[in-house]
Amino acid sequence: MRRLRRAKIVATLGPSSSDPKMMAKLFEAGVDVFRINMSHTSHDKMRELVTSVRKVERDHGRPVGILLDLQGPKLRLGTFTGGSAMLAKGATFVLDSDSAAGDAKRVWLPHPEIFAGVEAGHTLLLDDGKVRLSVMKADGKRIETRVEVGGKLSDRKGVSLPDSTIPFSALADKDRSDLEAALDAGIDWVALSFIQRPEDIAEAKKITRGRAAVMAKIEKPQAVHRLAEILELADALMVARGDLGVEMPLEKVPGVQKQMTRMARLAGKPVIVATQMLESMITSPVPTRAEVSDVATAIFEGADAVMLSAESAAGQFPVEAVATMNRIAEEVENDPNYRSIVSAQRAAPEATGADAIADAARQIAETLDLSAIICWTGSGSTGLRVARERPKSPIVALSPNIATGRRLSLVWGVHCVITEDAHDQDDMVERACRIAFKDGFAKAGQRVIIVAGLPLGTPGATNMLRIAFVGGDAAKAV
Questions:
Q1: Is residue 441 a contact partner of residue 468, using CB atoms and an 8 Å limit?
Q2: Rounded-to-integer distance, Cα 387 and Cα 199, Å
Q3: What is the pLDDT confidence band of residue 478, given thresholds at 50, 70 and 90?
Q4: Active-site residue identified among 35, 388, 390, 407
Q5: Which residues 6+ apart lie within 8 Å of 295 measured at CB?
Q6: Fold of the domain built from segment(s) 348-477
Q7: What is the rounded CA–CA span in Å between residue 445 and residue 433?
């Protein structure tokens, strides 16, 4: 099943989309990667969802990726007498280590690590930013604040700290348990929530040990400030605009989105744009014009993937939401301005053989108007480097490893086919041409360019280009 677009679609599974038949409909409508949100999923349910996705994969003969999204550390207040309290603007409000029920003057904050990281002048955001506090004094057991924006606070509301780096791991005990269970189930990507530092990525990689690729969700200002260091360790990024819009001024989020998409492309790593992309389609069969423009902007920026959250997980029109996103991506990529915008963002290749070969493959394909760039890749690195160039020609990745195909399902423009490794160069050329012909990427008499590493099967050794004619039943290298 060949997609007629380069950007990929990620859809979140939930009550509206957990049925295997619905998953198949979503895949046929355009889903490339299914997301499992562990904030709302038990281990047994997660395993059931993975089994269902793998059945969709087998039935359609195409690699399908699974992204596991960890909940991350949840910082919450204690409880209030009567269940809630009204905070008045300008009043003094204290967060302390006393577990007694709170009132309009104080409340329990059951997180000792916050007391260690907060300083005078910092801001605290409660209940998704609806209440804003300014810290006046802070010590190891008490934070005295002034209410800048008041409102009603109820039990167990969330706490966000946009100015403070809190000395805790991005992996809570629940996340570690969820991650181990998911790795055993065979997921492909794991997304880390609320990371602050590159060390958070390193900690997750010690657990995954290559069994899944690690994605950094950027939803805190602290992570934005250290984005370059985080990107160096992470395998991919997610622009998690929901929490990012809580912890920093909303008007800054579009600029951060653009910064992240460009940095990820420069590094040759996938980037997902997520949150509220087609939010109105939770209850409506059609999106707003602003939502269509939002999705289109992400595609124009060259994002690898766009993501549906509640639209596909709990919405009334999950298939329509995926189909709408699919149509938007196809239309944008056919726009006369798309190619010039994507090409203008292209960075010079890095000083490595693999990057030089990938850049040369793109230039040759454009100069000769070749039908496809075909990459033999075991680890996926060749496919990633070619995708970084955002070529005009389709990218076909041939890999003997199903895990590689599943991970590449997230990457811009890559159509992955699982096939046994080539026996020699002639087999490599002939099979590449045959698959390109069979999957509709090239017709008889057209030419393709083949990228591979020699000796065959050597990870990361991208060092060869071949141009080949496609025949009805054979291929001829030139």
A1: no
A2: 28
A3: very low
A4: 35
A5: 277, 278, 306, 325, 328, 329
A6: Pyruvate Kinase; Chain: A, domain 1 (3.40.1380)
A7: 11
Q: pLDDT digit string (tens) for 65-120?
A: 999 999 998 899 999 999 999 999 999 999 999 999 999 999 999 999 899 889 99
Nearest of 228, 238, 204, 203 to residue 67 by alpha carbon: 238
pLDDT at 441: 95
Which position among 41, 208, 275, 404 bears the catalytic label? 275
Q: Is 407 a catalytic residue?
A: no
**Is 261 one of the annotated active-site residues of the chain?**
no
Q: What is the pLDDT of residues 118-129, one digit of tens each?
A: 999 999 999 989
Pick the catalytic residue: 217, 241, 362, 390? 217
Compute the chain's Rg from CA coordinates.
Answer: 24
Tokens 């996926």 sit on residue = 380
Catalytic annotation present for 35: yes
Give, in order, the Cα–Cα distances in Å from 337 to each of 48, 261, 269, 283: 43, 18, 24, 33
- CATH code assigned to 81-160: 2.40.33.10
2 is catalytic: no
CB 71 within 8 A of CB 178: yes
Give the sign of the dihedral formed by CA 422, CA 423, CA 428, CA 433: negative
Would you tell me how many other CB atoms lie within 10 Å of the CB of residue 459? 12
What is the reported pLDDT for 69? 98
Average pLDDT, the chain: 94
**Continuous segment of H or E residues that includes residue 142:** strand 142-149
pLDDT of 168 higher than 60: yes
Q: Check pLDDT > 80 for residue 474.
A: no
Dihedrals phi, psi of 419, to nearest 5 degrees: -150, 155
From 25, 45, 74, 76, the catalytic residue: 76
Please report the sign of the dihedral spanned by the C-alpha atoms of residue 259, residue 261, residue 266, residue 270.
positive
pLDDT band, residue 472 (cuts 50/70/90): low
Q: Is the pLDDT of residue 473 over 70?
A: no
* Domain residue spans of the chain: 8-72+170-335, 81-160, 348-477
Q: At the top level of CATH, which class does the domain 8-72+170-335 belong to?
A: alpha beta
